[in-house]
Amino acid sequence: MDGHSVIRTEVIQPGARLLAVQLLSPAFPTGAFAYAQGLEWAMDAGLVSDGGGLARWLNDVLEHGSGWSDAVILSLALRPGADHAGLDDLARAMCLTSERLTETLEQGRAFAATSAALTGTSDAPAALPVAVGRALAGLDLARAEIIGLYLHGQALNLIQAAVRFMPLGQAEGQRILAGLSPVILRLAAQAADATEDDLGGCAIGADIAQMQHETMTVRIFRT
């Protein structure tokens, strides 16, 4: 490795990491604060009523629901020569409810439109994990690191929804997020080398919650 390569690693890599953190932060303007993936109905129905229940719900969503499917699709979208159009179709097919489909498409559209100015990548609308993979594929970062940041942001967004809805303080919410770190890191490592054959899951409770949420008379969140 020559001196120029060493300089590139030391200078550009930290910038890439900070950009990834910026793009995958829940504060990035995708409107994520308006979505809760059916968690609002679960809290209203008493299925999630305290910090322990929330931690278990999030763990299941990450391992068996949208967390895992998004992680695999994101991993595929990050790879050289990825068929982003085909992956967008696949991401849409993985959505079992109309609310879930609306959520990933609207957030993906907002993400692509804003991230294009920062990365020089396409601003074409796509499902969120595909739009993220397309935008971050050129960064010199390990897939597992990007996937981990994505899952961390998704978990934090749901925790913030719970903090706004039920008696759950910010400190308790942060404790729950920290407790999810091992599962997030494990899933990110597994998804980094996953294939389409690894897609699949069974989070029936979360799917039902999303369906039930569509019929709520009064609701705070869009999903």
Notes on the protein architecture:
By secondary structure, the chain is mainly alpha-helical. The protein has one domain (37-213): Urease accessory protein UreF (Orthogonal Bundle). It has helices at 3-23, 39-44, 51-64, 66-77, 84-93, 98-119, 128-136, 143-165, 170-179, 181-192, 204-213.
Q: Kindly give the count of domains.
A: 1
Radius of gyration over alpha carbons? 17 Å
Secondary-structure element order, N to C: HHHHHHHHHHH
Strand content: under 5%
Number of helices: 11
The CATH class: Mainly Alpha
Shape: globular
Low-confidence stretches: 1-12
Category from helices, strands and their pairing: mainly alpha
Helix content: 55-70%
> What is the CATH superfamily?
Urease accessory protein UreF
Residue-averaged pLDDT: 92
CATH structural architecture: Orthogonal Bundle
Q: How does the major sheet shape up?
A: none
Kindly state the number of beta strands.
0
Distance between the termini: 50 Å
> What is the CATH topology?
Urease accessory protein UreF
